[in-house]
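Q: Structure tokens for this one, please.
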Amino acid sequence: MGLQSTFHAPYGGADFLGWRKTRAGGTEIVYDDGVTRRMIWRVASTDPSEVRISEALRVAVGSIRVLATLYDELKKRAIAIERIAS
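A: Here is the predicted structure, written as tokens:
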């Protein structure tokens, strides 16, 4: 079964959320608003659940306030992140 790693806002916005694996094996979450803002966070957990991350991203990108919802969903799932780029 494949696991979705990228999500686009369904309501016509250009918001994009995705997760990716780094060369070192870490996991990162990427946000892009399609205009000016691109943000990247490192998942601080040593063994993050890709299923829980995907669920959080899916819920967040479906909301009007993507970033606020993303932070709430990650917190609900006890997924710690640290911002590495903006």
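A few notes: The helical segments are 50-61, 66-76. The chain has one domain: 6-85.
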